[in-house]
Design goal:
Length: 135
């Protein structure tokens, strides 16, 4: 049976993919879009950045659909991938051991932003195969 444990992508793998998606055209300030941005320490496993133009401090998740979410990135990626394979929200919540509502909210955010497609495409590109993370 499929479980989150059998999903082989780590939190770091998912974060690397998020960075590749988000900063594909280079780092830009999430407030003023300036490219005059430098590294500014860490926030947990996330990198923090400082905009030398406007002084804004932000991290990899600031201004994205993942911002403010306490759900690990690998759960977001798991949901994105299983959405692509047509799994239902109730099935996902059973596998993840989460309530229906939070899973529903994640699916909604992913669907509205189209991020689930971008995430699975990027992962498959990196893996060089249709199978990603053991799914
Ligand atoms: Zn700025």
């Amino acid at each position: 049976m499929l479980t989150l444990k059998s999903f082989t992508l780590t939190e770091e793998d998912c974060l690397t993919t998020l960075r590749e998606i988000r900063w594909s055209n280079g780092l830009t300030c999430s407030s003023c879009s300036s490219k005059n941005v430098i590294k500014h320490g860490n926030y947990g496993i996330y990198k923090k950045y400082l905009c030398k133009e406007c002084g804004h401090v932000f991290n990899d998740k600031t201004g994205t659909i993942f911002h403010g979410s306490r759900v690990p990135l690998r759960v977001w990626f798991f949901i994105a991938l299983t959405m692509q394979s047509g799994m239902s929200i109730s099935e996902m919540s059973k596998i993840l051991g989460m309530y229906y509502d939070p899973v529903y909210r994640i699916v909604k955010k992913l669907r509205e932003s189209g991020y689930h497609k971008v995430m699975s495409t990027k992962l498959k590109e990196t893996a060089g195969t249709g199978k990603v993370g053991g799914l």
